[in-house]
Design goal:
3% helix, mainly beta
Length: 150
């Protein structure tokens, strides 16, 4: 965890059955948030090849029981372009946000900003980043899966 982040957690079970995306229980029960509640959550990576393609999966679950007058709502950006939002995580239920097209660039910044009407800072429970690898050869034998009649 970055020094500008702090964490919150719960011992309650979180519903992780989310369309095939299922982060580990221990991971989804903890969330990072900015140490300064008015700041965004930000992280970045720099690929060796700027033509590399990436898919990002962000996991969110509200781990705090919010009061009636509290809200947590945020927008997710990639390199200052909207990726998703506004989004409000559900209490004890995991949701996943991902990009539908591959991300490419010299640097990749993911920023999560709270909305103007949010009382609480953004959170992030987990992230997975996948790099696309193009295979020169077919990963299976070309004759696999062919059917012939007798």
């Amino acid at each position: 965890m970055l020094s500008s982040w702090d964490s919150i957690s719960t011992s309650e079970l979180i519903n992780r059955n989310n369309y095939g995306y299922e982060p580990p229980k221990e991971v989804i029960q903890t969330a990072a948030r900015p140490a300064n509640g008015s700041e965004p959550l930000r992280f970045h990576w720099t690929p060796g090849d700027p033509n590399s393609q990436f898919y990002v999966y962000l996991y969110f679950a509200e781990v705090e029981q919010l009061e009636r007058n509290q809200s947590r709502k945020f927008n997710v950006f990639w390199n200052d372009s909207p990726l998703s939002g506004p989004f409000s995580p559900r209490y004890l239920y995991a949701d996943t946000i991902s990009n539908s097209r591959a991300l490419m660039g010299k640097e990749h910044w993911i920023s999560i900003y709270k909305t103007a009407d949010s009382a609480l800072p953004p959170i992030l429970n987990a992230i997975e980043i996948y790099m696309v690898i193009h295979l020169d050869e077919s990963p299976t034998f070309s004759e696999d899966g062919k059917f012939s009649r007798f």
